Automatic annotation (TrEMBL):
It comes from Phlebotomus papatasi (Sandfly). GO terms for cellular component: cytosol; elongator holoenzyme complex. Residues 50-339 form the ELP1 first N-terminal beta-propeller domain. This is Elongator complex protein 1. GO terms for biological process: tRNA wobble base 5-methoxycarbonylmethyl-2-thiouridinylation. One of its GO terms (molecular function) is tRNA binding. It comes from the Eukaryota. InterPro entries: Beta-prop_ELP1_1st, Elp1, WD40/YVTN_repeat-like_dom_sf.
Length: 360
């Protein structure tokens, strides 16, 4: 069952639903060249979904499968295996080409918007930046105590004391660093060691959210893989991260004393403002954040027991407005905005029972 809350000025034009009949699907990636086509993955198999035609077919099996990405230029699928292998699936030949090996267990794959670069995160808290020819550009240990090529600006808006701190006010600017790690993260976040990577819309920078000494932080790198900034130490940062395509803010969930918020950070890692969520973390947990391609809508996916919610927010006159909320009576396995230029406001949602929805 799906409940759609009343919308405020953000019209739902249509909703398309396809029951794949497969409850093992983990993620879905949109084919940006062929409208109505997506690629879904499970533990060891990749499927092509033609959701407008209500069809799904198996493309290939691949043990140890991590993730896939449709490459527009070569019209191939890039396939990442947890073991570190990188493969290309050729649709015409129905076969693989092995194009690279990371030499470590891969935990995530994130392509730049122009698909000229890809970042692989590894189990040993490293990131490997590779170009479209699958040559290594840079390899970085995230746990190294380096800040970056650019230090915090010490005057004007770059200075911590002059930053906007939301309802926390002046005390937030003067707050001392927390040293008790039990105050930093919830137990489930301490156990969550996943490294998450997001790109800015123009592909000039990417941010990496990771866990170090029971503290979540993020680092910002340029296209050459050179570290530019490290975020300031903040209480309660969590693992989800999203970079507004226009480049203004990096969004990260954060538990601040008795509040649950989406912290909004500048590229230099300084916290600028926040979006206060209408629930407590003890009741509902943020799992994922996604900005629409035009930077207008921030989608926040949460879990409450066996239910999932997706909240759609927009910003106007420095105030956040909840435009719509979607409620699902089961877990959302994956959701994302359609990256196609003609589908900017299309939201793809995959549920645990294999149901696939496209909202426009």
């Amino acid at each position: 069952m799906i409940v759609i809350a009343k919308m405020r000025n953000l019209l739902l034009l249509c909703k398309e639903n396809f029951n794949t009949g497969c409850n093992k699907l983990k993620s879905v990636k949109v084919d940006t060249q062929n409208s109505g086509v997506s690629y879904a993955t499970c533990e060891d198999e990749v499927f092509r979904i033609r959701w407008r035609e209500q069809k799904m077919e198996s493309l290939f099996t691949c043990p140890d499968l991590l993730d896939v990405e449709y490459l527009m230029l070569s019209t191939e699928l890039c396939v990442a295996k947890k073991s570190g292998e990188i493969l290309l699936w050729n649709f015409e030949r129905n076969s693989f080409d092995e194009v690279g090996f990371c030499g470590d267990t891969i935990t995530s794959m994130s392509w730049s918007p122009d698909q000229e670069l890809v970042v692989f995160a590894t189990e040993s808290s490293k990131i490997i930046l590779i170009n479209s020819l699958f040559d290594i550009v840079e390899e970085v240990n995230l746990l190294e105590n380096t800040f970056g090529d650019k230090e915090f600006v010490v005057l004007g808006w770059g200075k911590k004391e002059t930053q906007f701190h939301g309802s926390a006010g002046k005390k937030a600017a003067q707050r001392k660093e927390v040293t008790d790690i039990t105050e930093l993260l919830a137990p489930d976040e301490i156990e969550n060691t996943k490294v998450n990577v997001v790109w800015r819309g123009d592909g000039e920078y990417f941010a990496v959210n990771f866990l170090k000494d029971n503290l979540r932080l993020f680092k910002v790198f340029n296209r050459e893989g050179k570290l530019q900034y490290t975020s300031e130490k903040c209480v309660g940062l969590e693992s989800a991260i999203a970079w507004k395509p226009s480049g203004l803010w990096i969004a990260v969930p954060q538990k601040v004393s008795d509040k649950y918020v989406i912290g909004l950070f500048e590229k230099n890692g300084l916290r600028h403002r926040e979006l206060c969520l209408p629930f407590k973390r003890d009741d509902e947990i943020v799992k994922s954040l996604k900005w629409s391609s035009d930077s207008v809508v921030l989608a926040i996916q949460t879990v409450k027991g066996n239910q999932s919610f997706i909240y759609l927010y927009t910003l106007g006159n420095y105030h956040w407005y909840l435009k719509q909320s979607l409620q699902f009576q089961q877990i959302v396995q994956h959701f994302d905005w359609d990256p196609s230029l003609y589908e900017w406001k299309s939201l793809h949602v995959l549920l645990a029972d294999g149901s696939y929805f496209v909202y426009k």
